[in-house]
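Quick one before lunch.
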Amino acid sequence: MRKVTIPHLMEMKASGRPISMITAYSSWQAAMVQEAGAEVILVGDSLGMVEKGFASTVPVTMDTMIDACAAVSRGASSPFLVGDMPFMSYEVDRAQAVANAGRFIKEAGMDGVKLEGGVERADTVKAIVDAGIAVVGHIGLTPQSATLLGGFRVQGKDLAGAEKLLADGRALQDAGACSIVLECVPAPLAEILTEELSIPTVGIGAGKGCDGQVLVFHDILGLYGDFRPKFVKRYLDGGKVLTEALASYVSDVRERSFPEEGHSFDMDPSVIKELDR
Ligand code: KIV
Ligand code: NA
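Model of the 3-methyl-2-oxobutanoic acid complex:
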């Protein structure tokens, strides 16, 4: 597959071809997502939950993200690679936001960064874009500030919320964002925003009217416990399949049915005979 670029994604929107985005946090996951044909890999800060055992994305650090992004860029080269800026890496001041965004590009081989927030984050997005870095926006339910939103709930359901979401989308596009993730937004509202914007929208829990869809790797494959939000479609009970394989190994070891002869190394018996023992 040829390298996916921003013009490629814009062209997909223009011609009505849906964009597939999947998260990945390691080289092997990235290689699988690339092989599956997704146009965009997101190294999400969801890594904190699905890979690191945190209860939210809030504790994820820059160094953790850079490490994961570098691994992903070693595993996949064709998809457009987006690194998620972690909580408090872009809110404090603009210079720090630009410098941190730069690390994703320079140190970790990402093609762009993603950060959460709309109108209130537009100046930061513009500063990062002005530095020559592609930015993907993220509005609707923004998990890093879920406390302020009153928890993990659908956003933009009432008139004020819907107007805020449309304003957020416009502000990000005006600031130079190349795409926007819409998380937990009513489908009709996501469709209106998608029609209005010239840049592609990528939905998660935002209905089929978006220009693309994104899901977390572990959610698609059933690798993250029993946690299953309404918007997730699980394509495999991976946790069960993998655990069964591991259990077969454990039982083989206990029964001494592994290793078999073919898994072992032999040597000249005369050497054993001459051993002084
Ligand atoms: O961190 C993440 O995986 C995300 C996607 C769910 C959009 O932000
Ligand atoms: Na995220």
